[in-house]
Design brief:
Order of helices and strands: EHEHEHEHEHEEEEEHEEEEEH
Shape: elongated
Number of strands: 15
Strand order of the largest sheet: 2-1-3-4-5
CATH class of the largest domain: Alpha Beta
Distance between the termini: 37 Å
Strand content: 25-35%
Helix content: 25-40%
CATH architecture of the largest domain: 3-Layer(aba) Sandwich
Radius of gyration: 19 Å
Structural class: alpha/beta
Protein backbone atom coordinates (compact mmCIF):
# COMPACT_ATOMS: atom_id res chain seq x y z
CA UNK A 1 0.00 0.00 0.00
CA UNK A 2 1.38 3.43 -0.94
CA UNK A 3 1.75 6.17 1.64
CA UNK A 4 -1.37 7.75 3.11
CA UNK A 5 -1.19 11.53 3.30
CA UNK A 6 -3.04 13.18 6.19
CA UNK A 7 -4.19 16.63 7.24
CA UNK A 8 -5.02 17.39 10.90
CA UNK A 9 -7.43 20.28 11.55
CA UNK A 10 -8.24 21.26 15.14
CA UNK A 11 -8.22 24.57 17.01
CA UNK A 12 -6.81 22.91 20.14
CA UNK A 13 -2.98 22.54 20.06
CA UNK A 14 -2.99 19.56 22.45
CA UNK A 15 -5.59 17.75 20.34
CA UNK A 16 -3.48 18.28 17.19
CA UNK A 17 -0.38 17.07 19.02
CA UNK A 18 -2.15 13.90 20.22
CA UNK A 19 -3.44 12.90 16.78
CA UNK A 20 -0.09 13.77 15.17
CA UNK A 21 1.70 11.55 17.68
CA UNK A 22 -0.64 8.67 16.85
CA UNK A 23 -0.23 9.14 13.08
CA UNK A 24 3.57 9.10 13.42
CA UNK A 25 3.34 5.61 14.92
CA UNK A 26 1.58 4.21 11.83
CA UNK A 27 3.87 2.96 9.08
CA UNK A 28 3.20 4.59 5.73
CA UNK A 29 1.09 7.44 7.13
CA UNK A 30 2.44 10.94 6.46
CA UNK A 31 1.34 14.20 8.10
CA UNK A 32 1.20 16.81 5.35
CA UNK A 33 0.18 19.66 7.67
CA UNK A 34 -1.56 20.62 10.90
CA UNK A 35 -4.03 23.53 10.90
CA UNK A 36 -5.86 25.39 13.66
CA UNK A 37 -8.90 26.36 11.58
CA UNK A 38 -10.70 25.63 8.31
CA UNK A 39 -9.36 28.71 6.54
CA UNK A 40 -5.78 27.51 6.99
CA UNK A 41 -6.83 23.98 5.99
CA UNK A 42 -8.24 25.24 2.71
CA UNK A 43 -4.89 26.81 1.86
CA UNK A 44 -3.28 23.38 2.29
CA UNK A 45 -5.98 21.63 0.27
CA UNK A 46 -5.48 23.84 -2.78
CA UNK A 47 -1.83 22.84 -3.11
CA UNK A 48 -1.43 19.35 -1.60
CA UNK A 49 -2.79 15.91 -2.46
CA UNK A 50 -4.45 14.27 0.55
CA UNK A 51 -6.00 10.92 1.41
CA UNK A 52 -7.35 11.54 4.93
CA UNK A 53 -8.44 14.55 6.93
CA UNK A 54 -8.77 14.43 10.74
CA UNK A 55 -11.29 17.19 11.34
CA UNK A 56 -12.60 18.81 14.51
CA UNK A 57 -16.20 20.02 14.36
CA UNK A 58 -16.45 22.95 16.77
CA UNK A 59 -13.91 25.47 15.41
CA UNK A 60 -13.76 29.26 14.99
CA UNK A 61 -14.63 31.05 11.72
CA UNK A 62 -16.26 28.01 10.09
CA UNK A 63 -17.23 24.67 11.61
CA UNK A 64 -15.68 21.40 10.51
CA UNK A 65 -19.05 20.23 9.17
CA UNK A 66 -19.59 23.34 7.04
CA UNK A 67 -16.00 23.21 5.82
CA UNK A 68 -16.24 19.58 4.71
CA UNK A 69 -19.56 20.22 3.01
CA UNK A 70 -17.91 22.98 0.98
CA UNK A 71 -15.40 20.57 -0.61
CA UNK A 72 -15.92 18.86 -3.94
CA UNK A 73 -14.72 15.22 -3.92
CA UNK A 74 -13.00 15.60 -0.53
CA UNK A 75 -10.51 13.16 1.03
CA UNK A 76 -11.62 10.45 3.46
CA UNK A 77 -12.95 11.99 6.65
CA UNK A 78 -12.36 11.11 10.29
CA UNK A 79 -14.10 13.49 12.68
CA UNK A 80 -12.41 14.23 16.02
CA UNK A 81 -14.59 16.08 18.51
CA UNK A 82 -15.53 16.43 22.16
CA UNK A 83 -19.23 16.46 21.26
CA UNK A 84 -20.74 13.00 20.65
CA UNK A 85 -24.11 14.57 19.78
CA UNK A 86 -22.67 15.52 16.37
CA UNK A 87 -22.18 11.87 15.39
CA UNK A 88 -25.33 11.64 13.26
CA UNK A 89 -24.36 14.74 11.29
CA UNK A 90 -20.87 13.31 10.85
CA UNK A 91 -22.05 10.06 9.36
CA UNK A 92 -24.46 11.90 7.07
CA UNK A 93 -21.27 13.27 5.50
CA UNK A 94 -20.08 9.66 5.05
CA UNK A 95 -17.27 10.01 7.56
CA UNK A 96 -15.13 6.89 7.78
CA UNK A 97 -15.10 7.22 11.56
CA UNK A 98 -16.03 9.54 14.41
CA UNK A 99 -13.55 9.83 17.29
CA UNK A 100 -14.75 11.34 20.56
CA UNK A 101 -12.11 13.15 22.62
CA UNK A 102 -10.09 12.23 24.52
CA UNK A 103 -9.07 9.77 21.79
CA UNK A 104 -7.19 6.67 22.93
CA UNK A 105 -4.58 5.03 20.72
CA UNK A 106 -6.61 1.81 20.69
CA UNK A 107 -9.66 3.66 19.35
CA UNK A 108 -7.47 5.54 16.87
CA UNK A 109 -6.16 2.22 15.50
CA UNK A 110 -9.73 1.13 14.75
CA UNK A 111 -10.19 4.26 12.63
CA UNK A 112 -6.91 3.54 10.83
CA UNK A 113 -8.14 0.02 10.12
CA UNK A 114 -11.33 1.37 8.59
CA UNK A 115 -9.32 3.64 6.30
CA UNK A 116 -7.19 0.68 5.21
CA UNK A 117 -10.32 -1.40 4.57
CA UNK A 118 -11.81 1.33 2.42
CA UNK A 119 -8.61 1.75 0.40
CA UNK A 120 -8.14 -2.04 0.05
CA UNK A 121 -11.68 -2.24 -1.31
CA UNK A 122 -10.62 0.06 -4.12
CA UNK A 123 -11.85 3.34 -2.70
CA UNK A 124 -9.18 6.01 -2.51
CA UNK A 125 -10.78 9.41 -2.72
CA UNK A 126 -7.53 11.34 -2.97
CA UNK A 127 -8.15 15.06 -2.93
CA UNK A 128 -6.66 16.73 -5.97
CA UNK A 129 -5.58 20.34 -5.36
CA UNK A 130 -7.15 22.81 -7.69
CA UNK A 131 -10.60 21.22 -7.69
CA UNK A 132 -13.30 23.82 -7.27
CA UNK A 133 -14.94 24.44 -3.94
CA UNK A 134 -18.72 24.16 -3.90
CA UNK A 135 -18.91 27.27 -1.73
CA UNK A 136 -16.08 29.69 -0.95
CA UNK A 137 -14.73 30.02 2.57
CA UNK A 138 -15.56 33.29 4.33
CA UNK A 139 -13.28 36.30 3.94
CA UNK A 140 -14.51 37.80 7.19
CA UNK A 141 -15.18 37.22 10.87
CA UNK A 142 -17.76 38.58 13.28
CA UNK A 143 -16.46 40.19 16.46
CA UNK A 144 -18.43 41.46 19.43
CA UNK A 145 -17.89 45.21 19.73
CA UNK A 146 -19.57 46.10 23.03
CA UNK A 147 -23.27 45.23 22.55
CA UNK A 148 -23.26 44.36 18.85
CA UNK A 149 -21.68 41.86 16.46
CA UNK A 150 -19.65 43.56 13.73
CA UNK A 151 -18.64 41.93 10.46
CA UNK A 152 -14.93 42.51 9.77
CA UNK A 153 -13.34 41.71 6.41
CA UNK A 154 -9.84 40.21 6.67
CA UNK A 155 -8.59 42.67 4.04
CA UNK A 156 -9.72 45.63 6.17
CA UNK A 157 -7.60 44.65 9.18
CA UNK A 158 -4.27 46.45 9.62
CA UNK A 159 -3.27 45.10 13.02
CA UNK A 160 -4.53 43.99 16.44
CA UNK A 161 -3.36 45.30 19.79
CA UNK A 162 -3.95 43.86 23.27
CA UNK A 163 -5.59 46.29 25.69
CA UNK A 164 -6.21 44.79 29.13
CA UNK A 165 -9.36 42.64 28.80
CA UNK A 166 -9.90 43.61 25.17
CA UNK A 167 -8.27 43.34 21.77
CA UNK A 168 -8.29 46.44 19.60
CA UNK A 169 -8.86 45.75 15.91
CA UNK A 170 -7.30 48.58 13.91
CA UNK A 171 -9.03 48.65 10.53
CA UNK A 172 -8.50 50.84 7.49
CA UNK A 173 -11.37 53.13 8.45
CA UNK A 174 -12.09 52.54 12.15
CA UNK A 175 -11.07 50.86 15.40
CA UNK A 176 -13.08 48.21 17.24
CA UNK A 177 -12.71 46.74 20.73
CA UNK A 178 -13.48 43.03 21.12
CA UNK A 179 -13.84 41.25 24.45
CA UNK A 180 -11.31 38.46 23.88
CA UNK A 181 -7.70 37.50 24.52
CA UNK A 182 -4.90 37.76 21.97
CA UNK A 183 -4.76 33.96 21.85
CA UNK A 184 -8.46 33.81 20.98
CA UNK A 185 -7.98 36.48 18.32
CA UNK A 186 -4.98 34.64 16.87
CA UNK A 187 -6.99 31.42 16.63
CA UNK A 188 -9.75 32.94 14.50
CA UNK A 189 -7.40 34.55 11.96
CA UNK A 190 -5.87 32.64 9.01
CA UNK A 191 -2.20 32.00 9.78
CA UNK A 192 -1.07 32.71 6.21
CA UNK A 193 -2.49 36.23 6.36
CA UNK A 194 -1.74 37.35 9.91
CA UNK A 195 1.43 37.26 11.99
CA UNK A 196 1.95 37.48 15.75
CA UNK A 197 4.99 39.75 16.17
CA UNK A 198 4.69 40.64 19.85
CA UNK A 199 2.74 39.45 22.87
CA UNK A 200 0.52 42.51 22.34
CA UNK A 201 0.42 42.76 18.52
CA UNK A 202 -0.78 40.77 15.51
CA UNK A 203 -0.32 42.34 12.07
CA UNK A 204 -1.84 41.74 8.66
CA UNK A 205 0.98 40.46 6.43
CA UNK A 206 -0.62 42.20 3.45
CA UNK A 207 -0.67 45.53 5.31
CA UNK A 208 3.06 45.54 6.17
CA UNK A 209 4.83 48.35 4.30
CA UNK A 210 8.34 48.10 5.77
CA UNK A 211 10.49 46.34 8.36
CA UNK A 212 13.62 47.70 10.00
CA UNK A 213 15.50 46.70 13.14
CA UNK A 214 12.94 45.52 15.67
CA UNK A 215 10.07 47.42 14.10
CA UNK A 216 7.38 46.63 11.54
CA UNK A 217 5.71 49.47 9.73
CA UNK A 218 2.03 49.24 8.81
CA UNK A 219 1.24 52.43 6.95
CA UNK A 220 1.77 55.26 9.43
CA UNK A 221 1.94 52.85 12.39
CA UNK A 222 5.23 51.57 13.79
CA UNK A 223 4.85 48.33 15.75
CA UNK A 224 7.59 46.66 17.84
CA UNK A 225 8.76 43.11 17.22
CA UNK A 226 8.99 41.21 20.51
CA UNK A 227 12.25 39.43 21.30
CA UNK A 228 10.45 36.08 21.60
CA UNK A 229 8.80 36.54 18.20
CA UNK A 230 11.67 37.89 16.09
CA UNK A 231 12.90 34.50 14.89
CA UNK A 232 9.42 33.61 13.63
CA UNK A 233 9.09 36.98 11.92
CA UNK A 234 12.45 36.58 10.18
CA UNK A 235 11.49 33.06 9.07
CA UNK A 236 8.27 34.40 7.55
CA UNK A 237 10.14 36.87 5.35
CA UNK A 238 13.08 34.74 4.21
Amino acid sequence: MSEIRCLIVDDEPLARKLIAGYVEKISGWIIVAQCKNAVDAYEILVREKLDVIFLDINMPVISGVDFYRSLKDPPCLIFTTAYPEYAVEGFELEAVDYLVKPVTFERFLKAVGRIHERISAGYRNEYDPGRAMITPLPEFIFIKHFSKLVKVQFDDILYLEAQKDFVKFVLKSEELLAGMTMKEAEDILPVARFLRIHRSFIVSVKAITAMFGNTIEVGIHQIPIGANYKEGVMEKFK
